[in-house]
C-alpha cells in the first residue's frame, strides 16, 4: 500500500492533470459485476490515499524531505559528462558517502503510521 500511496502523493503534489489509476486488475475469476466492484473499490482507494497525502502535508511532524540539504541533487542527472569513463576515473570518499543519511526510515515510519490510521 505504501507504493500506491507514494504514487498518489506524487500525482497530487505535482498537479498531474492526466488520468489517475492503479495498474491493477480484478481477479480472473470475477464476473462482470465483480470487475465493476473492483473498479469502484480502486477509485475509493485512490480517494482515500489522496486524503492521506493531504494529512501527511498537514501533520506538523512530517518532514519536508524535498528541503533536506542532500536532496536537491536528486533532480540532477546521474550520469556525469564523460559517462562511465568519468565515473571510473573519479575519486570517491566511500566512507563519507556511506556515512550520510537521508532520513528515509523516519519518513517511512511516518507514512506507515498515516496509512495505518494512527496519525
List key phrases describing it.
5 helices; 119 residues; mainly alpha
In short:
With about 120 residues, the chain is mainly α. It contains five helices and no strands. The model has no long low-confidence stretch (mean pLDDT about 85).
Helix content estimate: 40-55%
Mean of pLDDT = 83
Beta-strand percentage range = under 5%
| C-alpha termini separation | 16 Å
Low-confidence stretches: none
Order of helices and strands: HHHHH
Number of helices: 5
Q: Write down the domain tally.
A: 1
**Rg from alpha-carbon coordinates:** 20 Å
Which structural class should the secondary elements be placed in? mainly alpha
Kindly state the number of beta strands.
0
Give the overall shape, derived from the CA principal axes.
extended
The major pleated sheet works out as: none
Question: Can you walk through the features of this model?
Answer:
The structure is a single chain. The protein is mainly alpha-helical. Helices cover about 55% and strands about 0% of the residues. The protein has helices at about 1-15, 30-60, 85-90, 95-100, 105-115. The model has no long low-confidence stretch (mean pLDDT about 85).
Sequence-ordered SSE layout with sheet pairings:
Elements: H1 2-13, H2 32-58, H3 83-89, H4 94-99, H5 104-116
Amino acid at each position: 500500500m505504501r507504493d500506491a500511496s507514494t504514487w498518489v502523493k506524487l500525482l497530487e503534489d505535482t498537479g498531474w492533470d492526466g488520468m489517475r489509476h492503479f495498474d491493477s486488475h480484478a481477479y480472473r475469476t470475477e464476473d462482470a459485476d465483480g470487475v465493476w466492484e473492483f473498479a469502484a473499490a480502486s477509485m475509493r482507494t485512490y480517494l482515500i490515499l489522496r486524503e492521506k497525502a493531504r494529512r501527511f502535508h498537514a501533520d506538523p511532524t512530517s518532514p519536508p524531505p524535498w528541503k533536506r540539504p542532500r536532496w536537491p541533487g536528486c533532480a540532477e542527472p546521474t550520469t556525469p559528462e564523460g559517462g562511465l569513463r568519468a565515473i571510473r576515473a573519479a575519486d570517491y570518499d566511500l566512507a563519507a558517502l556511506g556515512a550520510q543519511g537521508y532520513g528515509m526510515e523516519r519518513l517511512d515510519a511516518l507514512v506507515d503510521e498515516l496509512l495505518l490510521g494512527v496519525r
